[in-house]
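Page 47, continued from p. 46.
Same chain as before, 388 aa.
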Amino acid sequence: MDAYTPRKEHKFTFGLWTVGNRGRDPFGDVVRDVVTPIRAVQKLSELGAYGVNLHDNDLVPLDATPTERDRIVKEFKKALDDYGMKLVMGTTNLFYHPVFKDGAFTSNDPKVRAYALQKSMQAIDLAVELGAEIYVFWGGREGTECDASKDPADAIKRYRECINFLIGYVKDQKYSLRFAMEPKPNEPRGDIFLPNVGAMLAFIETLDDPDMVGVNPEVAHEHMAGLNFAHAVAQALEAGKLFHIDLNAQKLNRFDQDLRFGSEDIKGAFFLVKLLEDHDYDGPRHFDAHAYRTEDEDGVWEFARGCMRTYLILKEKARQFNEHPAIQELLAQVQPRDAELESLMSRYSPQNAQVLRQKQFDIEAMGKKGLGYEKLDQLVIDLLLGVA
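Result:
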């Protein structure tokens, strides 16, 4: 077993919808046979994954009877046990059925909002029954194309009311469950409310129990808006709000591609992995992506294997970065420490303010100093290309 072979302790997970993606797109029908939930659990376990995630209807069809539901859940729980896998995260499909065409929690129609809450409570019950400790909310239909159709302030208020309702439900049921909110700027709606990590973090602070709720950022979603994903993740980490993460790849400013992790922007992927590892992120590393439409089922498992392998390669590169003499020497030069100034700036006091007001700074010399970032960046490139 080499250093790039995934093991359970790496906490790699895949959604049933990821390896189960059949290659359909807006311009073409399915190209692959169904991968059943039990087959997904079996094969992902063989590949070294830690667990799986699901939407409610990935496992239990929307029209299943209670008897059918119980049979399906029993068989799936047995598969998890048989193959040593975990159900890590659950979520509710609030985007596929036509009833949600104008939103779920933000729909203008109170009957739609009520049904969305009903469906979410049932889905939360299912996820908890299967062992999930994280529950994700992705508001894929919570947005507009026609801005005249709804007041966005009212929409955010409705969104808050529904999340608060479900916070209350989870507490009343005494479930050990945390919520993670997943932002996205657009698609399938023209504009989606709470479109990025920063907006979602601000929204969370308005909820009844902000401590119970964090974020589930996704590489592709921030890249669709041309943003730096590692910076978004850093903000969530620093706030103690990174409850879950969706890893994939994406060409900037395109439709949501959900490509194999690391297949685009390898430098960005490297700094993301380095950030997670340097800050000891101990949550699941979930790959929310799917195989190219060109692939059969064998290609699906190559895709899954590739996601995990690339993460582990970049993890090793991060270790090499942290031990690279030339890189660390440069970083020491460009990240100087000054205990006195750092102490003064760490907390306001009238005394600290007075000392800072009287400090003399040679801003001409400071402004002329080269920082060596060209050399530093090239050393990173050398490292990633294997010639460092």
